[in-house]
Predict the 3D structure of the following.
Amino acid sequence: MRELTLDKLPQKVLAELNLETVFKASRCVIAAERLQLFRKLDGKELTASEIGRSIGLYKRHRETFLNIMTALGLLTRKGNRYRLSPLAHKYFIKERGPHWTRLWSRYCTEDYTALSVLEESLTTGRDYRKILGMKREEDYEVLRHDRRWAEDFTRVMHDTKRRQSKLLAKNLDLSRYSALLDVGGGSGIMSMELVRTHPNLRACVQEFEPVCRAAQRIIKAAGMSRRVKTYAADMTKEIAAGYDVIMYWDVGAIPLKSLKLAYRALPKGGMVLMNCASAGKIDRSVNLLTRKLTLVYPDHDIWQDAIAKTKAAGFKRVKRIRIKDTAWVVTGYK
């Protein structure tokens, strides 16, 4: 899916945007997404009053807000009726589903909140949540109890990992193993691809219960329910036994406690594997760098840390291997 970047906007709109108005305009677009404005207008032509009633816009703000969207080239107006522009239909309807929209807009509002106290954060080193007196649950904590959030998160991660899953399955030989436990495996997309590639392999996705429910629907739709199961458990408290490979993929920094539990759960000769980041690699994405600056985005283990923790958990023959050009994998054996 491609992002709507400034260069996609009409030239007339671009000519009127500066740093100040870009920030304000982008926040209005996020509000439109969160209120489901674009989806309510998909295939329709409505008045400001009809739109307002549909998405709950306060009467005094209706026309002003809709005219902002029109000025940005996202809506068109004919008389007193509004409809989606081709630009909005392409980037907000055709190229993203409601799961992606809800997840993305939530992250964006967190970013805006963090940036509102950026100067104090920069000069004091304090987390924006402490500055604002907020208590924010991390993603993994929300996944424990919020079914809608779990569904959105699981569906989006499923879509974003398609290419990665195929690369891993193509370049990781698991032919000597029979059972894989995919800890924090989300939708099960990595497990499903590995099972397709290795006919003798079965897999289980260990996740929080709401994620397991979402994963079960995805796995069933893929026709993989007989070979890929789910198991609801917290990886810091339990790692399921009965598997000769335990995999952690894109779960953030892995707690040493979980790796120790994995060591106990594996049979002799069993393997643990995890993906990790390269040390010193500069991510030049302004978005990710800004999220790291405001502490909104959690870091993954760099490969040196992943190796050290894997050894500390008791694993032997720990090493790092490269999966094509996209990923580093750390492996260890019991």
